[in-house]
User: Fold these one by one.
Assistant:
Number 1:
Amino acid sequence: METRRIFRIRESYAVFLPKAWCEKNSVGERSEVNVMWEEDVVVVKPAKPRSFTARVSSPNIDVVVKLLMAALVSGYDEVRLEVKGLDLGLRHKIMSVARGLYMLPMEEGPDYIVFRVEDVKFDREKLISRMVSTLAFMIDHLITAPKVDPSLLESVDDEVDRYRHMIERLCHKYPTGLCASHVQLARYVERAADHIVELARLEPPRELVEALRGAVAEFVKTSSVDDVRSVFAFIETTDKIRFLLRQLARDEITMLHADRVIDYLTNAAEVYIDMITRRSPVVEI
């Protein structure tokens, strides 16, 4: 890190960019850069698209999916995928996965595909809010549905996963001061959703689900207000909720998944404390 002085040019302010950074990123006079800011952080990035190439030595769909996912969340704009033994069946599978990752084919050859990643600049906090409301929908389904449908919850959980991927991508492409907290939140909510899916497969007692539903509802309320007292109040209730869940769980595996939901919600609540503290230099409880 370096300390540099700001100087004034007419009605604007300027600071010199490090020469080594400019050379590394091929930025010179008249080059365009993206400037992002959030609270007290300003980020400057080259405006040119970023490209990624993955060369896979065998037709392994699992490897391909993981590499495409990594390219997406790492913020690349163009992805060239080269696969030895790329037959028609594997190509169709790759295309299906790519559509779900907002990747559009630009060019194809016998053993390669080039994708362009379609970017939609969602607000990260709105995406997290969607994840939280989706979590509430999932737990409501366990209570209100005449017959619980684990496959429906799996598809909803896939949507939660996509929200998390979008948040990670946005934080790589447009990094700001709160990105670390947003990624943590997204991962905790996603993992809570995973355990709700596992609970659905176990057909847990209705009373246990009602207790979890109450905890999720309190978390939803807490996440929607920028109030540190509300967050601490939620955290203080979690021990009572755990005690109640232990009384209601029929077996250890059911208790494990219910307990993990509470764990991840508590972790997420602690991240909200960090965010509130960052936004405000004075906190009163």
Note: The chain has a mean pLDDT of 91.
Number 2:
Amino acid sequence: MLPHHTVERLTKRLLAIEADAHRRGWDRPPVPLVIVNRRDTTSAKPSLQIITLPLQTRSAAARDLPLPDQLHQLAAALHSRAGHDRSTGSQVLLCAVLYHDLHATLDELCPSRRLDALDADGRRYEIVRRQNRPYPTVHRIPVFANGPVPATHGGLTDLLAAAGRILTAGSTS
């Protein structure tokens, strides 16, 4: 189970990623991310590292797939490479995807930026910034919470498993 201070560090890192995306502007393509806890032999503290993964956009058909399907394809591609890549000795903590969406309330529909994430314990993180608001809202949802699940959840689950196979195979951490 991830310790409380690690969950707090992950939340702060996700907020920094969203803030950086906000500075770059709107209407960017989706970005899948993996956050790992890299063991550095020169430092006593493990460091969080962000790995950005490209979505499969070679064909027009792949670009037109819904985001959850693109995440499943990316996970399958990583899964197929798991035997060919060497371990980095890192622990995969979280997989996330940053994308643009529409946010609906009772009286309006406005563009929003979402960062959906899933950590190694099954905890969900949802960060949403509506285009007309200066600050995002942050939700950390416990492992067994009831309620609506984002459509990206299944793809992030697959991505977490595939990244874990590649990055932690043979690791002693």
Note: The CA atoms of residues 55 and 137 lie 26 Å apart.
